[in-house]
From TrEMBL:
SMART domains: LON. Residues 28-225 form the Lon N-terminal domain. It holds the Pfam family LON_substr_bdg. The gene is lon. This is Lon protease. Its EC number is 3.4.21.53. GO terms for molecular function: serine-type endopeptidase activity. The keyword Cell cycle does not apply. PANTHER family: ATP-DEPENDENT PROTEASE LA (LON) DOMAIN PROTEIN. Coiled coil: none annotated. Keywords: Hydrolase, Protease. InterPro entries: Lon_prtase_N, Lon_prtase_N_sf, PUA-like_sf. It comes from Allorhodopirellula solitaria.
Length: 260
């Protein structure tokens, strides 16, 4: 399996479809991928073609549309490890768009819904892996409520220093500062987009203290010396906006896809 890191990521305009079903019992379908750490509120295109994951996709589409994205731990495989290890912290995702192609190939667009921790993998007769997970709930320190607006501005200011100096991107940052989107979703989206080492991203994914997560992300940005323009991220690829007026349609779908 190979994977192309996310492109065209945007702030989640699908908040109305990212709630877990009321009967969610913690049992999930696992989709292990190398080099990808999915976050709530982020969107990830995927190209599905391997038979076991096509089976997983069909089951998901016929039921709750949920697939949990897991990060493969290096090394991806070894002769003594028949089942590649995955990081215990994962992201439950939901399929928000699907297009079936020739040859039983599929393009899907997923949005991250919730953090979770794998409690145990389940025995199954299916060709794909399944697990039971505990959801990780975001925690907001009550005493920090009055300071949270300033924290949001600090985070967006730090991010603004490393994005390409184009009017559109910086106007979007200004709109976010003035908008209603909270520091939690903004932190997750930026963490997902940044080309940090996988270990740093997994640390951010595991943190349920929203304020602490934002502070840690600011520290990572400040000490990283990353210039998103130098790593080839265009203004469109940064794609910052608080909301989108519509879902992807047939003309815009699929966006750039990662291969499973």
């Amino acid at each position: 399996m190979g994977i192309e890191l996310p492109r065209g990521s945007k702030l989640n305009p699908f908040s109305d479809v990212t709630e877990l079903p009321e009967d969610f019992d913690g049992n999930v379908r696992l989709f292990p991928l190398p080099g990808l750490v999915m976050f709530p509120h982020a969107m990830q295109p995927l190209h599905i073609f391997e038979p076991r994951y096509v089976e997983m996709l069909r089951e998901s589409l016929a039921s709750d549309r949920l697939i949990t994205l897991a990060t493969l731990v290096e090394p991806v495989a070894a002769p003594t490890i028949p089942v590649p290890e995955v990081a215990p912290i994962v992201c439950v995702g939901k399929i928000i768009s699907h297009a079936e192609l020739e040859g039983d190939r599929h393009n899907i667009l997923m949005v991250g819904v919730r953090r979770a921790k794998i409690r145990r993998e389940l025995e199954t007769t299916q060709s794909f892996r399944t697990a039971h997970v505990d959801l990780i709930n975001d925690f907001y320190v009550p005493a920090a409520t009055e300071k949270r607006g300033a924290l949001k501005r600090r985070l967006l200011t730090a991010f603004g220093k490393i994005i390409p100096p184009k009017a559109g991107s910086h106007q979007a940052l200004h709109d976010l500062m003035a908008g209603q989107m909270g520091v939690g979703p903004i932190t997750d989206i930026i963490a997902y987009m940044m080309p940090f080492p996988t270990t740093d991203k997994l640390t951010l994914l595991e943190m349920n203290d929203v304020d602490g997560r934002a502070e840690h992300l600011i520290e990572l940005i400040d000490r990283s010396d990353i210039d998103l323009q130098s790593v080839g991220m265009s203004e469109q690829e940064i794609g910052l906006q608080e909301e989108s007026p519509h879902r992807p349609d047939d003309d815009s779908f699929p966006p750039p896809f990662s291969m499973n």
